[in-house]
Amino acid sequence: MKLASIRLIAADINTVVAFYEMVTGFQAKWLAPVFAEIETSGATLAIGAVETVALWKEGSAEPGANRTAFIEFQVEDIDAEYERLKDKVSLVQGLKTMPWGNKTFQFRDPEGTAVSLYMPATEEAKKRFAAR
Questions:
Q1: What SS3 class is residue 10?
Q2: Which end of the chain is more exposed for a tag (fewer CB within 10 A), N or C?
Q3: CA–CA dist 106, 5 (Å, integer)
């Protein structure tokens, strides 16, 4: 089994897609006017308009309601990414090193989803990620 994608449901899909294009530096692929994907080397971030919820089951997802998950992107230079984004995003937490060895910062996308950029910072964390 492989994690293929994380899907967000957006009330304003154009704003959310533009936000993630800015954060990742990748251009979204629009597969339909109500659905876009941003492909990274690890997984795909899929973004569906609120209208797509009814294709699954009416009421099964709600834009802006997630308060349990972070979308995380591993980066090469966390300090450079922080400098690039700190004035463009709604910061939750500035740079800090977590107990498991990742240096990270957190922010929210335009609809409130939590996002984290990180890089392994300690030797133990670097070894853990090198093994993957």
A1: strand
A2: N
A3: 20
Instruction: Please name each of the domains of the chain with its CATH number.
Output: 1-65 (3.10.180.10), 67-132 (3.10.180.10)
Q: What is the DSSP string of 63-116?
A: TT---S-EEEEE-S-HHHHHHHHTTTSEEEEEEEE-TTSEEEEEEE-TT--EEE
Q: Read off the pLDDT of residues 38-54 as tens digits, 9 standing for 90 and up.
A: 999 889 999 999 999 88
Strand partners, 29: 37
Cβ contact 118:75 at 8 Å: yes
Q: Which amino acid is at 72?
A: E
Other C-beta atoms closer than 10 Å to the C-beta of 98 total 13
Are the C-beta atoms of 12 and 111 separated by less than 8 Å?
yes
Cross-strand bridge partners of residue 90: 108
Q: Under the phi-then-psi rule, with left for phi > 0, alpha for psi from -120 to 50, and beta for the rest, what region is 45?
A: beta
